[in-house]
Specification:
With 615 residues, this protein is of the alpha/beta class. It contains 21 helices and 26 strands. Bound molecules: 2-deoxy-2-amino glucitol-6-phosphate.
Amino acid sequence: MCGIVGYIGSQRAYDILIQGLKRLEYRGYDSAGVALVDDAGHLTVHKSMGKVANLEQVAAAGPLDGSLGIAHTRWATHGEPSDLNAHPHVSQSGMIALVHNGTIENYAVLKKVLIEHGYEFKSETDTEVLVQLIEYIKLTSSCSLLDAVREALLQVEGAYAIAVVEQNDPDNLIVARKSSPLVIGVGDGETFIASDATPIVGYTDKVIYLKDNEIALLRRNEPVQILSLTDNKPSTINIQKLRLSLAQLEKGGYDTFMLKEIFEQPSTLRDCLRGRIVDKANRVVLSGVELNKDKFLNAERITLVACGTSWHAALIGKRLIQDFCKMPVEVEYASEFRYGNPVLNEKDIVISISQSGETADTLAAIQLAREKGAFVYGICNVVGASIPRNTDSGTYIHVGPEIGVASTKAFTGQVTVLTLLALSVGHLRGAIDQKTLHEVASALEKMPATIEKALKVDAEVQKLSRIFTYAHNFLYLGRGYNYPTALEGALKLKEISYIHAEGYPAAEMKHGPIALIDHEMPSVIIAPSDSLYDKIISNVQQVKSRGGAVVAIISKGNKAMSEIADFCIEIPEVPECLTPLVASIPLQLLAYYIAVNKGKDVDQPRNLAKSVTVE
Ligand code: AGP
């Protein structure tokens, strides 16, 4: 979703801003823009529809001077993608420029008042209202830009991360946030701002994560000042060390980030598991659980909240926790949970799962859960993101930055951490026997090597993908642990190839979707040799007898399915609860190659954003 970059220092701001926007491209956007203030106090704005490369072409005519600037990639919410609606937005007098990530909910009311005061609007955005409001306050109360921004934000309802510059003041950059992320990079005589840390990497490893309702004044050659938006008092400044490297943000020889991330999974799972399976696989240690033993011992129910792929991981987590902790578990879409009046108390544990840690609905869901007294635990990838900072405790999945919009390594990292959590809580509550714990923990410990074997199907899946590239619809079927795997496989295909795909519990197919099956509708069946294998065989026969082609994901050496299915892809044999981890590998590859065959942009699929920071 929208990305913000800003710079104040001694270098040419434009170069840093454009490079920063390119690093934020993965978040998803439809237009981009930059505002520069030169040393003489001139403000220049360049904007363009489409990619950052288009912006560079437009901006090439210049001027590009100035060591202060703000820039933006926009993901349309209010108003279609267009040059006019692209950020930065400039106030009526041309004095102030602003970029914004989020939504101003009461923009219509504010706009009406501003129109009554003679303001005219060029765009359809909520953001333009904010910049005009700031100017109106500044002019009518003759106050500083900082005070005008603060006053305007107190009138705004909604979510925002903003950066503001003023044409007559080349020494001043103002940023603020509420429910939208903003990171400040503290350099030597220069300061960077961005929606996430990726544009800052390589310049400084000192970062400040701005908190909700904070406003920061970044003055040239002066230390960062942060104030509370509500009472204007100085906030404590907590400078943290950024642990991200440039290499992690590059494709490392692969054609796309998605392919790199698929192939990285053996090593990302190694990082995810490091130090967590101990005593010869007889014990699992998650510090978030260890430090909160009482909460996990006394809990009466666990509710998992998440969106998208993370929600699919949550569905697998539900089975793991039920099987190993023998306690009631619910799974909710965060967007439904937050408006569903959930009944919670201090005996509830709510576990949020999020790669980015910035998903607006998940963040709101955990805030609600905390208000209702539940203990909130976060499973997150991005270190320092809003969700881990708003939970009581949690576990990072440590799979490194995921740049491809379609989640792959984060999904396997989430399922891995959920398995560790279920084993450790199950052990704590005496709900799992030592033999089972050891068996699952040993297989999990070997998972990086197992995934390496699973990835060997790459060439075979690539070949298979050519047969199905032009199918219009797909059905993904799975049962038990692999019903969520089917959902995830279908989501991957939809996201990057734009082919309609439905994931379904295999046995439910006969209650409706079977009507869709004909020779043009392939089905992908996830059928490892597990407790439901015999059942799924008959589901496959139902598909076959209606003329549908079947691609089956089977455990190595399984003969029965290979006699019925049209195509079989073998995966290494693992305990049933770990089959989603291995089965998702060929599904990721199948979606990837079909999308590539169709010439799609797999890393930045249309309309999608990597972190969904608006409702
Ligand atoms: C996955 O491929 C998606 N792009 C999307 O569904 C994603 O999982 C969802 O938006 C949740 O994101 P989060 O994990 O960062 O909260």
